[in-house]
Structures
1.
Amino acid sequence: MYILSDGKNYVMENPMKIGEYLSTTSPVHAKEFSYKQARALIQSNRKKWAWMKQYHLIGTDEEGDTVEKSVNYRGKANTYNDSSEFDMKILDDINNEAFSILELAAWDKTQLHTYRNLLGIELGRCDSAVSDIEHALQTYNHTSGGKKPQAHKMAKIGYLLAEIRDKHEKIKQVIRYVEVMQQAIDNQFTLEKLKYELSKAKFTEYKGRTKYYQVALDTLGGGSSDL
């Protein structure tokens, strides 16, 4: 399957009207097409799809296959007969892109594996820290005969938990990125495919599984969880 992108934007289907397409910056909402469907959209002469002319195909299969040749190829006849001037800005764009790539560390599988292990160890430490604090609260509950801790002490515990969970969340996010980079090496992703997969790996809002998520949000003044 394939998605359509111009490098920044993607083609999505209008959820309110099947068969109508919109531009989106979110790869998560990108519509997947067969090669035939995607090619038909790009090559279509219909005015309402003219904005897709500059889009190209990105393979979304696990092997990371992409289309090597532009689907807009028409041969070389009359190539230089138009009166348009070459835009020198293209050279700057390509140079900037090349310099950006050259500045990358370009980690190999060994380096990524090392980072993944270090992150996994620290993630486990965070999990253990949260568990220890929760068990400490249970221990206090038993030893105090069910007495509630003083508010200022609970506030300190709450801040401590928040600090650890914030670190936990950041580590998990980076682990997602590392795993995508590992997949990119194994499956020989193109840069565009890698960019797409990394953008999909970004943190998404947590969805509560019980009523207590909303109860906690309301207590904290965090608003609705319907995001």
2.
Amino acid sequence: MRALILLRLLAASLFCSAQFPPEPEGITVLRSQFNNNVTISYKETFICETTPGVRGFSGYVHIPPNALAEHGIKNQTWEINTFFWFFEARKDPHNAPLSIWYYGGPAYSSSGMPLSYNGPCKVNPDGNSTTLNPYSWNNEVNMLYLDQPVQVGLSYSTFHNVTVDRVNETITPLPEGSSVPEQNTTLLVGRYPANDTYKTSMGSTDAAYAMWHFAQAWFQEFREYQASSISLSGVSYAGKYAPAVFEFFEEQNERIRQGKWPTKGEQYILPLNMLLIENGLFDLPGQWFSYPEFAVDNTYGIQAVNDTVYQTMTNNLNKPGGCLDQAYQCGNLSLQYDPQAIGVNETVNHICAEAGNYCDENVQHLYSYSNRSYYDITVPASLSREPPFAHAFLQQPHVQQALGMRSNWTVRSDDAIRAFRRVGDFARPGWINKFGYLLDRGIKVALTYGDRDYLCNWISGDAASLAINYTDTANFHAAGYEEIHTNCSYVGGLVRQYGNLSFSRVYQGTHGSAELQPETALQIFNRAIFEKDIATGTVSADGYSSKGIRDARSVKNEVQTDWMEIKQVCYLWDLQGTCTDEQIEMVDNGTAVIKDYIIVDKNSTERYPEIVGLGD
């Protein structure tokens, strides 16, 4: 009886953070001095980054319909309202460089990352407060986190009200004018971006066009942060987003320099500095060979799949009509009939979509037979190291008000994912070529890979780095792998570097090195952006060539077993990712005891006694 009474009391508090966001207050609206149809709405933020004197801002850049028509995007009848969260550098912000940061996916939100990954803070287990992160990337760099493409995270074209079933992870639109249903622990209501796969970006190139218009507006209105250099960093599918964005930015810069872009208010030359990609996905043919290989032959000595699965993966990759054949067909047709890769040819869209789906299902996803994590080959697929406390934090009314949210936050947009899938963005070619173009324009490229990740593994990243064709390709190939000295007592990995191009393998890193190796990830980021050698951070990168071993695979890793000590906790904001079937059933039938979104049991009382108590 005590448990049931407690559940009812807790449920009442849970509902408070599951309602529609409050109407934003204290919003400043700037109308572009160049275009009355472009506005920025924002407010100063005082959460997450609490270092005295360090400022932050969050808000939206509102781009009108048909803004992309001049780039060949027809029928853009919706607004592009892109959410940003900006943090000043903790050190000398008005002279610091600036980096934009993207999550991958595609279509995963970046606005949760300041709270859980490489940003100024980490959310505490209560889901309602934060602790400063000493390894934040804004220590010396101004950071601008963007939810992109539109409909992702807090970015929107239009809104609709929905119900959310936590157990089944289903979202159902509420008919216009209907009453709000009664909520309970598993049924919530919220305001989400419109679920329309045709009101978002149709692939990475389309997204790049939208981001250029965002950048023109943002940097010209926030003039105090017109840094001497702008970088772009991201993880995973950012390997496609980011080079597409920076290539288009630089092409537009050149048009402006030559007087070929006459649009008033869109003539700011963006000073591009560096592109940093963590565990990036680039070109399908050049990287997918690594899936069967990494599954059985990795530096951790783990054979994740048996010989039968390995042979099936290899056969499906290489056989006539298999993954590579379909990818090459997609690439050839795309270059011929849709060279901009913006989805203008339905035949190409279909062939490329089918290629991506075939390769996913018949090569990449056969790894699921291993029952190991896609993001960390050393641990079980079921392992959740820590509940996603940031998910709860972003649903708190005071946080929604502090950020000026127009909708409830979501971790991803399935509709935007479907839009990318529909045009075959996964299988389209040419992303590695964009790196060569940028390098020959003097823009740095840093590729960094946690070496425990299967999904975007370091073997594929190493191959991608060697496939980049630019002026100094031979010099890059001639460079050796040198140890990365994270600090005076720890070696964090290996790096091959020549001048502006580097490839880093981060020891014991996962799908994004900042998760488990935050200091090494920060050092690589800072050294790259400030034009130093990645190995030590003490030598100018200009003309620098790393020295060391020729074969990075010769350096083996020990499998760490610390995960075995983790007491896994079931969390209400991620039932499918953190809970057993029995725990989910208890939540569903109302017999679970829940405190601050944590399901109370032996594990949670031992791990978070300050939240759930010590038990009876």
3.
Amino acid sequence: MESVRDILLKTRLLTPSKHILLLSHMRANSTLIGHLLGSHRDVSGYYEMHIGYYSWKSLINQKLHFHQGDPGEPFTKYYFDKILHSEHHVNVDILSHDNVITLICLREPLQTINSIVKLYRSKHPDDDFTRPEFAARYYIERANTILCIAKKLVKQKESYYFYDAKDIIDKTQDILTDIQTYSGLKTPISTRYRKFDKTGARYFGDSSEYIHSGVVVKKTSETLNLDIDSELLDECNRVYRECREYLLEHAWTSCISQTA
């Protein structure tokens, strides 16, 4: 027999909510935006769930996954997740639902590859991501996947909000104001954030000392002397430019400026 707690959980999981889904890649300041959004009183979720989105049932699974992992967190009107790996499938039809808000973010390739390699050499020295060429190929594949999803959204006349990864640090208030407007959140998103149970924990995003600060920190970029094939890096830059240009051209902010 089900417990009262289980029955209440199922009832709350079926209560309609909105879902903020960020499509991005590793090392694009996604832990920061997750903490900023997750600290809003109407938003639950601040880390990558590592799940796919196949149908409307996946949205319920997102809520279940979060509350099983964070049972002390409240049920809210919005739920956040980020998808950083193409192995977690995203059905574009899900992004077309009225209760789904799509965010897309890119970071410049050399900085991204540098950050991936540095992280994995420090935390996971036996992983393939310690090799610059492996990180570069991941970047190319991920950017192409994001571009493909964006093109399908545009074809279906659906919108998304795009921002550059660096701007969540350099233009924090502007980005948060845009996201508040785009998502329909009733109150502003603060530039300060909570420290959650999984903040800084392994496998739950950024584990550096910066994420524990509770505020946006402008970090000094450190560049490794990466041994990476120049043609492969050129391909990364080409894919980045192509993807970013398309995303900017068709993004919600571009639509707003054209109709204002």
4.
Amino acid sequence: MIIAWRSLYICRVSRTHADASCEKVYTAAEWKSVWQVVRKIRPPRKPPTLMEMTKIVAELGGYINRKNTGPPGPQSMWLGLQAMHIMAACWMAFGPGADQKCV
């Protein structure tokens, strides 16, 4: 239920507040991990816009970002959010900010 609510919420908010910071909706671990995996470069110091990050997450769910394609829908966001949660968990466990003490 929470994933369904969040996917609809992100779809709506990213359309109305496209230029807002993505950190209004995504945690730092979420957007940085997705950025690094999808773009294959280090995340920028300044967070991307909400619409830019929403499109990147939706691409993980099958959204094709073309010039004449509309904004992402709830299904591609739902599938993208599932992949994002896995990436964020790995980022927190093994990423740059993770505790260096492994047993």
